[in-house]
Design brief:
The chain is α/β, with parallel strands linked by helices. Helices cover 26% and strands 29% of the residues. The chain has 7 helices and 14 strands.
């Protein structure tokens, strides 16, 4: 992830974790805040009600692509800096808005674990409203990536103590990758190159898919190829509840979208978002996948998470599964 520095003074400060049990060392508290929430800290209410606030809301509250119901990328809460007490300092995601006429050019600060852990603190300070908005617009995608990382860190802190080591070992022995799987998941299908994991709740279901195919060329990263492989394997291995029914990819209600990214665990991956459905039955929900070349073998790996939660919000469920997909490792088999 890179930020263009032309015409802008950018300060990027990432603090190492300060939480420690060692004598004489600083103990930093655990961060707080609900999933996918950013606390916006303004100098005054006019900033939030004016063009700056409109700009921030237009980006962070835009709908997350691939969800059946409209749900924003993040929830936004607002507070003025005069009320920014110690209680609010522990929020996991903090975004400061500052306008200081004495400055000659805008400045960005990105810090980690300042008052709590895990925590991401982003501050834009600019001489005037116009330059503040221009700076935000130029770097807003980087800001989203930073807050996404903060959310994944919190979720993994929760999941890591609940990991199912036996299940993870089965996956490693079958497909040669390590991935954190929390307790509650079970293997619904294991065909060597295709693993289907499920976790069932009273009102919803979650699933993980891990599959590989031989890697031949970059054409396999096209959206059409990714969906064609997905649909062929799902038809074969993921049946629906009715006789003859099977999971597939919706291509009408929400067209699947693929985005190339270097922000994943590997140097390069394709993120695909869309909606799955069941051919021959009435089931559907969002899915998210990452496709990449295994750095050890000539194979294309896809990791996917999907959610089934009829008539309920699903963004946070999918974000939790996304965090698991980011936990993948590629150890060498002994």
């Amino acid at each position: 992830m890179k930020i263009n520095l032309i015409g802008l003074l950018l300060i990027l400060i990432v603090y190492s974790g300060l939480q420690s049990c060692g004598p004489g060392e600083i103990r930093i508290p655990r961060s707080v805040g609900i999933t996918s929430e950013i606390l916006i800290v303004t100098q005054n209410n006019e900033q939030w009600k004016g063009l700056i606030g409109d700009t921030v809301r237009a980006f962070f509250e835009q709908p997350q692509y691939g969800l059946p119901q409209d749900e924003s990328l993040f929830r936004l809460a607002k507070i003025e800096v005069s009320n920014f007490s110690e209680m609010f300092q522990k929020h996991r995601n903090l975004f400061f808005i500052e306008v200081k006429p004495e400055l000659t050019q805008p400045k960005i600060e990105i810090k980690s674990d300042v008052w709590a852990k895990p925590q991401r603190v982003i501050r834009i300070t600019a001489p005037d409203m116009k330059s503040w908005i221009e700076t935000f617009e130029k770097h807003k995608k980087e800001f989203k990536l930073q807050f996404d990382q903060s959310e994944r860190a919190r979720i993994m802190d929760i999941f890591r103590p609940l990991s199912d080591g036996k299940l993870a070992q089965t996956i490693f022995e079958s497909i040669g990758i390590k991935i954190l799987i929390p307790q509650g998941f079970f293997i619904a299908k294991n065909e060597g190159n295709f693993i289907w994991l499920r976790r069932e709740f009273e009102d919803h279901s979650e699933g993980l898919l891990i599959y590989t195919i031989p890697y031949t060329d970059t054409a396999q990263f096209s959206l059409n190829q990714i969906i064609a492989v997905r649909d062929s394997l799902l038809r074969k291995y993921v049946p629906g509840p009715s006789t003859g029914s099977f999971m597939s990819t919706d291509k009408v209600f929400i067209v699947p979208q693929a985005t190339r990214t270097n922000a994943y665990v590997t140097d390069f991956a394709v993120e695909t978002r869309g909606v799955w459905n069941v051919v021959g039955d009435f089931m559907a929900g969002p899915f998210l996948s990452y496709s990449f070349v295994d750095p050890r073998y000539a194979r294309l790996v896809t990791l996917e998470g999907y959610v089934y939660h009829p008539n309920k919000d699903k963004r946070d469920n999918l974000r939790q599964l996304e965090s698991l997909l980011y936990s993948v490792e590629f150890p060498v088999k002994q």
